[in-house]
Specification:
Blueprint lengths: L2 H5 L13 E4 L6 E4 L6 E4 L2 H7 L4 E7 L3 E4 L3 E6 L5 E6 L6 E6 L5 E5 L11 E5 L24 H7 L5
Parallel strand pairs: 3-10
Antiparallel strand pairs: 1-2, 2-5, 3-4, 4-9, 6-7, 7-8, 8-9
């Protein structure tokens, strides 16, 4: 169990704001709360996301760590990314649902897996990345920005998801 990692977050609390999003794992042992006002998602078509989601692409919801609270048992599996950094993948040890990722290069952010949201239809992907690996049956929407691989740097990532802070 990832007790040390879990301790870095506050417990999920009652009295959520209207802007909050909730979610959890398939068996219900892990629950989370996302607060704040900006919620956006993107679709990643890399082979790693296809494998972890057992689908054509993964949906990711980047969230500032301070706006993410999780409760329940978690385990961590770490892997190296194509960019050379390390991503810690947090999942429920009971049902195996991937809940979120935390990267070594972006300590202030976590990336929640969109399929674990209670209402996954609440967020339509604002961008598509790693489209060079996309399944050929998937037609990219013309109006949504996309990258052959991924944005080159932090500034481009922020522009992709609308964080011009």
């Amino acid at each position: 169990m990832a007790d040390a990692a879990k301790g870095a977050f506050a417990e999920v609390s009652e009295g959520q704001s209207d802007a909050s999003l909730t979610g959890g794992c398939q068996c219900g042992a892990v629950r989370y709360l996302i607060t704040g006002t900006l919620h956006i998602s993107y679709a990643c078509h890399c082979r790693e996301c296809q494998k972890q989601s057992a689908s054509g692409f993964g949906i990711s919801v980047p969230v500032k760590r301070a706006h993410f609270a999780v409760s329940g048992p978690l385990q961590i599996w770490s892997r190296q990314t194509d960019s050379g950094s390390v991503t810690d993948c947090y999942f429920c040890p009971q049902c195996g649902t991937r809940v979120y990722h935390a990267g070594s290069g972006r300590a202030e952010w976590v990336t929640v897996k969109g399929g674990s949201l209670d209402r996954p239809d609440a967020l339509q992907p604002a961008a598509h990345i790693w489209i060079r690996s996309r399944q050929r049956w998937f037609d990219l929407p013309d109006h949504v920005p996309h990258w052959e691989t991924q944005p080159r740097d932090e500034a481009e990532w922020k522009r992709m998801v609308g964080w011009d802070e």
